[in-house]
Write a structure and sequence with these properties.
The protein is α/β, with parallel strands linked by helices. It has five helices and five strands. Bound molecules: 1,3,4-trihydroxy-5-OXO-cyclohexanecarboxylic acid.
Length: 148
């Protein structure tokens, strides 16, 4: 079966605006810098990352559909969709792939409406509030899950 080391990293709505979002929640990194850093962690762990970002829910869903046979595992930070977009839940479930949900900020300590995640029950883990380090944690969890 070869190496199972292909990780799809998906970012949803408003994540591309990281540089202008409140730094007390999201830190100082620009979006490009965030992806560069994740890519670096991945290569340290012997994993291959492919990145995708969109502000359109249907495109996010279609990207999940396209992962069959193209990825071994998924890291996703859907932004505000996390809290209400059940279409993402169903599309993620359809992939059948192990997934980790990541949030830069600690959503458990923020507004009430951020307390619900509609995808957490189709993820093997959720990492929240650890900034870019959270992606490193997600990558190691998936590496272990894939037996790499
Ligand atoms: C986020 C948290 C969400 O509540 C928010 O809507 C985002 C980013 C995070 O990474 O902390 O856009 O997913």
């Amino acid at each position: 079966m070869g190496n199972r080391n292909r990780i799809a990293v998906l970012h949803g709505v408003n994540l591309d605006q990281l540089a202008v979002r409140p730094s007390e929640h999201y830190g100082q990194l620009s979006f490009d810098e965030l992806e560069r850093q994740i890519g670096e962690y991945a290569s340290e762990l012997g994993l291959q990352c492919r990145f995708f970002q969109t502000n359109h829910e249907g495109e996010f869903v279609e990207h999940l559909h396209s992962l069959a046979g193209m990825a071994d595992a998924i890291i996703l930070n859907p932004g505000a969709w996390t809290h209400y977009a059940w279409s993402l839940h169903d599309a993620l479930e359809l992939t059948g792939l192990p997934a980790v949900e990541v949030h830069l900020s600690d959503v458990s300590k923020r507004e009430e409406w951020r307390q619900l995640s509609v995808i957490s029950d189709v993820c093997i883990a959720t990492v929240s509030g650890k900034g870019v380090q959270g992606y490193r944690e997600a990558l190691s969890l998936l590496r272990a899950q894939l037996g790499q």
